[in-house]
Amino acid sequence: MNIPAIIKARLARWLAKAEWPVKWAIFGCRACGQCVLRQTGLVCPMNCPKGLRNGPCGGTLAGRCEVDPQRECVWVQIGLRRDARGTTAPPTHAPLNEALIGSSSIWNCCSGADRPTRRPLPPLAATADAGACCTASRLEERLRRGRFVVTAELCTPSTEQGLDRMRDRIRALAQMADAINVTSNHAGVPRVAALSLARCVGEYQGEAILHLCGRDLDPRSYLDALVGLSANEVHNVLCLTGDWPARAEPSAGNRTPPRTAHYFPLEAAQMIYEASHLRQFGASALADLNARPAPRLCVGGAINPSSVPTSVVLARLAQKIACGVDFLQTQAVCDARLFGQWFQAVQQAGLATRVPILASVPLIGTARGLEVLRRLPGVLLSDDVYNRLRTSTDVAVACRRWSTEILANLASIRHLAGFHLLNFGAANEFIAESIQFARNLAAQSSPVAVDR
Ligand code: SF4
Q1: Furthest-apart CA pair in the chain: how many Å?
Q2: Can you tell me the distance from the alpha carbon of 333 to that of 421, in angstroms, rounded to the nearest whole number?
Q3: CATH architecture assignment, domain 138-442
Q4: What share of residues in the chain are helix, strand, coil (percent, to 5)?
Q5: Which of 64, 69, 241, 299 is 20–30 Å from 253 (CA)?
Q6: Nearest Cα residue to 184 out of 148, 221, 220, 149
């Protein structure tokens, strides 16, 4: 029987009005119209202030939400409901289809309108070229050869003049580090185009890793950005969900069906999946566009070893591996003993040999740098350490010694693929010394690791 479109539309609206109050009362439903409750342990992920369809983000600590620490992280709840054992990768869902928000998920399920975003993304086939390099990235080549690598980080300045002032630092680091991370809009504050800084690194024969945040890009602009990297000889991308924008107000909790501007259009697992899919199949999995030639990039991601419960973090790690990530850099490590315990759990889950993991060590050069680290979402800096450093007679000296101790204590961890040196107001000399110190440590502690 052919039902007229106007009747169908009325039925769908009526169903949406009837469906939402019931599902809100039972599941805290936010009426996204593409229901994934069956895959999320009957916990509605749209209560995540960032609106993530896969999680958790790197900002959760002690199971609390980065955006609103008064409440539990929704994706930690989902992970516990899923009873993640950390070994199996949870399903990865595509970004939200905004057009379906506020409509009836029952209607969309019956009509198939929500199929692309309700069903998990198809698993990526294990790459035939697992051993060989499949990009022009020097970093990928070193990691695939089992070389112990040391990467450093440059924060994109807010002005072109700032970029010029950074040239000395770029020149110094480009020759010393295996690769240099270039942040984009870090802390949610707009800055000079990160690609300008990445191109600068290339001018000094350095290897750039450009950060891209799902907070700032929808599937089309993300594809555009990946094509732009390739066209500018930048062969590495770090896929991040992104911190909550400094001035944005969380919208979760209001009773009306949600239509909020604050949902992040993409998150890290989706971005990793898309970049790997482009490399493997030459086609976009998320955007209704195609890039010719498709970018072939070395794909990196991040993981937070300080988040709990560990099983949920390991499941997120397994998810990023299943999405095709080539390397992972951790959130800042401020306690080598705790990191060692976490890495042991990674090894026991059989994940440490499936992806190179670089431990990120904060290099603090100033009291202000210490404060910035203290406030960074997802960083666990204990009150003891913070107060000890903050009250020391010479904060810069005490912080340098502390960073160096962490490096030394981490160096003996087997299967660690390298160090990533984060910069919190550190001077060029200190960064250069730390790179050399990290290499020497790696050479001493596990020579096999250096040239394994
Ligand atoms: S911590 Fe992150 S993933 Fe968890 S609810 Fe908050 S914003 Fe969402």
Answers
A1: 83
A2: 10
A3: Alpha-Beta Barrel (3.20)
A4: 45, 10, 45
A5: 241
A6: 221
Mutate to test the pocket of ligand 1, among 48, 80, 215, 241 (most ligand atoms within 8 A of CB): 48
CB 299 within 8 A of CB 237: yes
- Is the Cα torsion angle 329, 375, 338, 423 positive or negative in sign? positive
pTM, full prediction: 0.93
Q: Tokens for 333?
A: 């490590």
**Of 30, 44, 66, best ligand 1 pocket probe by most atoms within 8 Å of the beta carbon:** 66
Q: How far apart are CA 118 and CA 302, in angstroms?
A: 25
- Nearest CA, atom 6, ligand 1: 65
Of 43, 48, 50, 30, the closest CA to residue 241 belongs to 50
Dist. CA 239 → ligand 1 center (Å): 17
| Residue whose CB lies within 8 A of the most ligand 1 atoms, among 54, 68, 73, 243, for a mutation test | 73
Residues with CB under 6 A from ligand 1: 48-50, 52, 55-57, 59-60, 65-67, 73-75
Instruction: Quick: pLDDT tens for 255-299.
Output: 444 445 568 999 999 999 999 999 999 899 998 777 788 899 999
d(CA 387, CA 52) in angstroms, rounded, equals 35
| Centroid of ligand 1 to alpha carbon of 251 (angstroms) | 13
Domain range annotation of the chain: 5-118, 138-442
Cα–Cα distance between 294 and 286 in angstroms, integer? 14
pLDDT, mean over the chain: 89
Query: Sorting pLDDT into bands at 50, 70 and 90, what band is 194?
Result: confident
User: Which alpha helices (H) appear in 28-118, and where do they start and end?
Assistant: 74-81, 105-111, 115-118
